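Lab notebook, bench 4. Still working through the backlog of constructs that have no structural model yet. Next entry is a single chain of 577 residues. Request: give me the structure tokens for it.
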Amino acid sequence: MDDAIFFGMDRIKRGLSWLYHTRWRYLILFPVFVLYLYAYFAIFCGVPRLPSDYTAYRDETAAKGALVYLLVQYAFGLAVLIYAFLKHKANVRLVADVFLFWAINLMVYYGFSLTVCTSRYDFRNDWWVGQKGSHWAIVLDIFSTGKIPDPPLTSSGAYDLNNQYYQSKLWHLIAAYFARFNYAIFPASGESIAYYADRGYPEFTYHVELAFESLKILQAAIGYWLYVLSDEIFRHLHLSKRASTIATILVCLLPFYAYIPFVYNNDALMIAFVLGALLMALRYAAHPSFLRAGLCALLLGLAMMSKINGSLAAFPIAFLFIVSFVKALKTPKADRKKAVGTFLGQMGVFALIVFPIGLFHSFYAWSHYGESFDYVLYPGNENSNNYLNIDFYGVYNRFIGLFTSDLFVRPYKYDFGRGVGGLDSYGYIDFNIWTGLFKTSLFGNAVYSDSALVNLLPFSLIDRQAKLIFNLWLLLDFWAGLSWVYWFIALILRKGKGLKPEQGFLLVMGVVALVYYVYFCIKFPFTSTMHFRYASLLVFPLFASFGGAIDKGIAYLENYPRVSMDASHAFARVCHC
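Model written out:
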């Protein structure tokens, strides 16, 4: 009997070892993670009992239980690390995996602590509950009818695009059908909710609200891929193991990754598809194939179908394709024609997939609604209280200065000022684009100290540590930016010699993200355009260069005693002579 138990444990150990080391482990674990999210939702969450409290848990006991469960998960991860170190089995890969485990569970705890159907604007981006024209209304339309809705009509009979109906609707479609599936499996009361009935939505019952609350499962599943795909990208950049681990740890510590899935719009899905396309492009560059070219095109097309600015990923991907083309041209003359022909065929497959999928919504909206290909909803006008008057703040304060006065006023970004456009004085609104970029990477548009949620966990914990989080990340981002600038200057001085394809990939990615972000803030001079979601690709050049710099520093310190001893021996020989 004991032998049978031992044999069984040994088989489990070998199976877990295989799962841990296989390259497909994240894909294999994903269905298990989704089932886990359903169990988590069923145990802790449900329809909020008291809407005025904005609590997302069944009751106070469930809220405390979720926090205790999170602490147990952190203790488990810490125990694994301590055990590995004591047994001399610790390595940088294990450290990265433990941080990923912590970060994903913290993301789940944070996101499931918020209600989906709330009127709290500061925790959402354009998810205006109970209002026409919002992402919420689009998902409800699809949920109710099973069809993608047309934009509403104006009094003149033309389509009104002054709302979120102009957006690509892949995420809305997925969210609506996900809610319909959960509507069938989660029972609840069919009584209409007065708050929504008074706003023209009598069909929004407690049963429908529970189905919408279950959207946190979908968003947490998307968040899972944000973390694991970022980790995989760092591992494919030919960084040292220690440098890629440092970069992954920074991703795990960055609050943006924890909150962006739970703003309930198409940004998180778009970013997840972009990361998948970037990873597949790196794999294609290492080992070109028709399958990898096709998968890269599919993922990039789906990113564009989620949100059109997913097309920015095409630039770093194109750089890797150009490198592959140059390699094909450099093959021996006897094989060159075949190599070039194969590459062109792969690019043909890429084009045949990416353009129909990626541009489908743009062509459809243009032909049906007269929507231009570059149409973006203008977020207000010069009288809006989030409008930024460049004449008042100045070009330097708005676009150039990194350490302007609004950076140190508060850790949160203030989107709305006093008076018309917040122009009566400084201090009521954040105006510098780099300040907005930095603060939204930490807290988004939320101002926890002013929120009704501030007395609830985990938001009170965030608010109490907001300044600490702010100062820590200010220091980290400063050194990350400095390391990237140092690498960029060194590259210029070397005239590009020794530039690896992965380094060029990061360079193009960073430059494109910066240029697009600045352009977007110039075209739309409002606080809402100052957001890290419009420049999220900066994570990779910044964290990769910072990880590389720290790795070199650690390597120097590790070699310092040997270097010192060699120097002392040389000095002794000189003195002896």
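Notes after review: The chain has a mean pLDDT of 87. The first helix runs from residue 2 to 21. Flag for follow-up if needed.
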